[in-house]
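If you are new to this repository, start here. Below is one unmodified record pulled from the training split, so you can see the exact layout before writing a loader.
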Amino acid sequence: MSSTASDPSSARTIVLIHGMWMTPLSWEHWIDRFQSRGHKVLAPSWPGMEGEVQQMRRDPLRSPG
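And here is the target side for that same chain:
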């Protein structure tokens, strides 16, 4: 993969999948890095793990598993 995506045809879509008990925030610096190089970045939450970290800590029973 090229270090830059200045040519729009070379831009890629990158999907980042976090591990269990993590949130998409674990990718925030990588998202910034890849987006600044022109890539589209997706970092979805696990189903049931949407929301802020503090919210999930207050209600751990809503977490899958």
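Two things worth knowing about this chain: The first helix runs from residue 28 to 36. The beta strands are 13-15, 40-42.
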